[in-house]
Amino acid sequence: MPADPRAVLSRPAPDPDHTVAYGDHPDQIADLREPAVGGPARPLVVLVHGGFWRAEYDRRHTGPLAAALAGLGHPVAQLEYRRTGQPGGGWPNTLSDVLAGVTELPRLAAAAMPGRVRATPPILVGHSAGGQLALYVAARAPEAVGGVLALAPVADLAEAYRLDLDGGAVAELLGGGPSEVPDRYRAADPRTLVPMQSRTVIVHGEMDQQVPAMMSRDFVAAARTAGCDITHFELPECEHFGLIDPESAAWPVVVAALRSLHEDQRPIDAASPTR
């Protein structure tokens, strides 16, 4: 683990190969990275970045993650969306942007990278707030999602509001608390959207100081009770940012989890999932 776990957020990465627009707003775009190795076409991997839905964080901090996945042979799209603190961000546009992007990007990526993108629903990789957004899309449009890898997801918005994660981030996203805008929580909160049809893998670090690991434990328990196909890895000695850092000790588990979704089988030979 790097001395400063946040170093990955500003680490330089190669420029993307293409940038495409899935809508008219300047933030309705995605950076595309072509697979660095040859081989058959693979499903598109859509990265949904975190940052507690706030404008100060954008897709660029997932550059090292995106470059590493492209290096492993995956076609990758770094999805951008409107965020709180900027015009149009928050409810409902932040969520509808990600839903629209996931729906449109396989077609756009296939046109930009001929022969590299398989004509199947994409695999979503969401980190932190991006994990919430990925789970939301999987619940709302299961036919558009080939699987979800949620890394330290904010999987319970009502609890995140109660814990005041990142100083009111959930209230800024939804426009209030659960008692003020209950319909919005019912519509957006992964905890209320189970069961989900998409194959899902959750990875969380025990040392996470931004999103408590207990949130994933509780979400997975509820999802399993509802009959979801879900696997959960909780990693000791891992904090929040190591999950998106290809130089961290958590990286082999992230790669194995993504491979399991690509191959439609459970992660193996990386760590023991919680049961």
From TrEMBL:
Keyword Hydrolase: yes
UniProt-annotated stretches for the region Disordered: 1-20
A Pfam family annotated for this UniProt entry: BD-FAE
Example GO molecular function: hydrolase activity
Keyword Ribonucleoprotein recorded: no
Keywords: Hydrolase
Residue span(s) of domain BD-FAE-like: 31-220
Listed name of the protein: Prolyl oligopeptidase family protein
Organism: Micromonospora avicenniae
